[in-house]
């Protein structure tokens, strides 16, 4: 049997879980040109909250997944091979060579890393720091949602790229300790403790050069206040806004972008997939040596896919939120 998570209703503000249903049926059989993949890991991502507002109802949720080919009617997809695909929240998927990508077997690198630090979230961190912010050695970097998937990759990448000071923000004192104790951040802010602008100014008394924004709103306002002249903002996401019913009240200091000659640039990682080889070349040896940690929270079972998604939106993850099947 095979299970698929369908979205059956739209959320109003924060999703509750009632917007989804688990649908079971017979396992699909390959047709010529396709292969059957038994999924091993499913990716849980904030953008899925945005998909919930305009994606198809009574249809499978889309999303990134990794699995093993268990039956094939295409010579390019041999049985036993591991592949990445985007068929989403399901136990089994029929893939073609065009909509799947074989995964390399890298000794010392966990398979799940291809959804996290070596996947779309690690690539977002790399693109944000290298291509958009053009981080230079010796600079001070601030990263929001720093204990999450993009953030934990970004903190470790910033260090490898020569940043002199790496500051992260997150939603609890325990997660802030994880940033400094396990991931090598120089300072960590708990935004729930209040006065984020003041906390950042204290952590970076000489200002920051680069801000990787995963949150938007008050975090963007705090970063603009702390950025030095000619600082850069790589705008990766705005997770504080995805379930909000109100327009953001911040940033109220956008004019400082002009006054300090800042550069604010958004990006979509899907327009930078050509950077993946450079990311792998940089990170794989460091993952193998243990210098870079594959930070992830693993939840077991397709039955728990929805609770993992809701938990990630509430900040219950350290590193990449992944569901293991
Ligand atoms: P993640 O950080 O692993 O998980 C989301 C985190 O957001 C939660 O763990 C939570 O951590 C934090 N959060 C939730 N509500 C918040 C709020 N109101 N204020 C501040 N923080 C809040 O997710 P991710 O996959 O790495 O994604 C991070 C950001 O990157 C998202 O905005 C996502 O949309 C974006 N992204 C963009 C691209 C692109 O192509 N531009 C690609 C991938 C991801 P706390 O406990 O710290 O609150």
Characterise this structure.
The structure is a single chain. Helices cover 27% and strands 26% of the residues. The strands form three sheets. Strands 3, 5, 6, 7, 8, 15 and 16 form a seven-stranded mixed sheet that branches. It folds into two domains: 2-116 and 295-324, Medium-chain alcohol dehydrogenases, catalytic domain (Quinone Oxidoreductase, Chain A, domain 1, Alpha-Beta Complex); 120-270, 3-Layer(aba) Sandwich (Rossmann fold). It has 325 residues and is an alpha/beta fold. The longest helix is centred in the last third of the chain and has 14 residues, at 276-289. The site of NADP nicotinamide-adenine-dinucleotide phosphate has 30 residues, from helix 2, helix 3 and helix 9.
